[in-house]
Amino acid sequence: MADVTIYEHPLSPYAQKCKIALREKGVAFAAKLPDSIGTGLAGGEFRDASPRIEVPALIHGDVTIFESTVILEYIEETWPDPALLLKEPAARAHARMLEEMMDTHYEAITWALGEIHFFKRATGAAADRLTAAAAEQLAQAHAWLEKHLGDNQWFGGRTIGYADCAIAPLVNGAAGFDLGPKPGTPLGQWLVRANARPSIEETQTEAVASLSDMAQVGDLISTGQFKRQYRDHRLEWMVRSGGLDIVVDGIKNDTIRFVWPFA
Questions:
Q1: Contact 47, 97 (CB under 8 A)
Q2: What is the domain count for the chain?
Q3: Residue 25 sits in a domain of what CATH number?
Q4: Range of the structural domain that residue 69 is part of
Q5: pLDDT band at residue 215, thresholds of 50, 70 and 90?
Q6: Do 113 and 193 belong together in one domain?
Q7: Which parts of the chain are coiled coil (predicted)?
Q8: pTM score, whole prediction
Q9: Residue environment code for 101-134, b if the CB has 16+ CB neighbours within 10 A, otherwise e
Q10: What's the CA gap between 150 and 62, in Å, rounded?
């Protein structure tokens, strides 16, 4: 039995990057979906491990860790072979910088698309307007990523690395809304290579399989059974992209939550 457990949802890009890293390193793990995920009411071992009540959370023996970046660094340090970070300090900083940009600016866009198209926070003209804003921002993000990819096969150089683990789930998420990189572009070619990696292919297959459960989540929001978390970069995206009314309605109807108090 694996002595590593990761609490996750297959669609979470934060959980996906950790699973990809574990698979690249050949570390066996058990993936668990927290009870009552999305309600803010999850309990038990998961709540003890993740005071934010968000995935992922990793349990390794007596060690419990939340926050995906901390988990990813723990994986790299605990199982250093094969290395996902290069030895040079500048290269390591570059990989972490890319991860940070994806986790904040990029994730906010794909998360907002989920709010619109899965959770039905906006419909009609409002949904079209917000989707258009997301499409424009993703195109800018893809141009930025291509600049950092350069002529390399991977964001870390010649082999898959730390940044690729963080970037692939989110770019795949954008592609799921038909807003991924254009085929044949450097980033589009990188995505094809990434999805051919067994670690990413398996993780992406799990994500796609879970999409069937998303058909009913709009009803769960409207009936108050789901409370989506609006934290920092996500809240900022809604405000600056024209979705402030979604935030106000969510607070009024008690269908969004913030990270406080700690569990």
A1: no
A2: 2
A3: 3.40.30.10
A4: 4-78
A5: confident
A6: yes
A7: none
A8: 0.95
A9: bbbebbbbbbbbbbbbbbbebbeeeebeebbebb
A10: 42
